[in-house]
Write a structure and sequence with these properties.
binds phosphoenolpyruvate, eight-stranded parallel β-barrel, about 15% strand, about 45% helix, globular, TIM Barrel
């Protein structure tokens, strides 16, 4: 048993065609037993264009999977061509929404103010943020990773209440480990996840901090997940590349 129910979330990024997306969802679901899915929460995070089909599968076949989106607009509605609102995602049955992924921060120039607005939008529409934070390689090499991550956390959670934050999921994703095959050591992951929990305890309360799930993300694979998950402050994984292979992803979800 775990202090917090682990979450294994698969971020497919901009991958798979529609047929492959449906097949992957089905294959992941049938690869895991109800007992396994009771122990570990498993989420798929497909592109927006697959969400309706994933919803139909999960609802229709009563799959014990949850799902979410990779981003949302900070706005409720209006003249924001190409954007997707929190209410649209809520209507599609999304549980989670990834916010502040390093690829959004880098390629879409999302700063901490935008990330904070998106966290607020998620709560407004009943979605649970998977808030991504993490340092780039130069920051790590200068040993600035802990203050960098706690500063990102503070900024993302500006004016977020204790009641709201209690349900949040934080993902510590060192940028140098994403999609590079360079996994952080279990000790590296633990150091930052523990610092995040301490910061949450200071900002809110130890009780709230102890209930919040903190994931590690960055080249998680079936072969390295167990060592990372053995760390006391790591409560799951945000999996990119390995999440589009059903067998690999299901094996990761069976880590206990
Ligand atoms: C991610 O995109 O969140 C991620 C962790 O990717 P990967 O597992 O491919 O490093």
């Amino acid at each position: 048993t775990f202090e917090r129910r682990p979450l294994i979330a698969g971020n497919w990024k901009m991958n798979l065609n529609h047929l492959e997306a449906i097949a992957l969802t089905q294959k992941v679901a049938i690869s895991l037993t109800e007992e396994q899915l009771a122990l570990v929460e498993v989420a798929v995070i497909p592109p927006f264009t697959d969400l309706r089909s994933v919803q139909t599968l999960v609802d229709g076949d009563k799959l014990h999977l949850v799902y979410g989106a990779q981003d949302l607009s900070p706005h409720d509605s209006g003249a924001y061509t190409g954007d997707i609102s929190g209410s649209m995602l809520a209507k599609l049955g999304c549980t989670y929404v990834v916010i502040g992924h390093s690829e959004r921060r880098e390629y879409h120039h999302e700063d901490d103010t935008v990330v904070n607005a998106k966290v607020k939008a998620a709560y407004k529409h009943g979605l649970t943020p998977i808030l991504c934070i993490g340092e780039r390689l130069d920051v790590r090499e200068a040993a600035g990773h802990v203050p960098h991550c706690t500063a990102q956390l503070d900024a993302a959670l500006a004016k977020i209440s204790a009641e709201q934050v209690a349900s949040i999921v934080i993902a510590y994703e060192p940028v140098w480990a994403i999609g590079t095959g360079k996994v952080a050591t279990p000790e590296d992951a633990q150091e930052v996840c523990a610092a995040i929990r301490t910061r949450l305890a200071e900002k809110y309360s130890p009780e709230i901090a102890n209930g919040i799930r903190i994931l590690y993300g960055g080249s998680v694979k079936a072969k390295n997940v167990a060592a990372i998950m053995a760390q006391p402050d790591v409560d799951g994984a945000l999996v990119g590349g390995a999440s589009t292979d059903a067998d690999e992803f299901a094996t990761i979800a069976r880590f206990p």
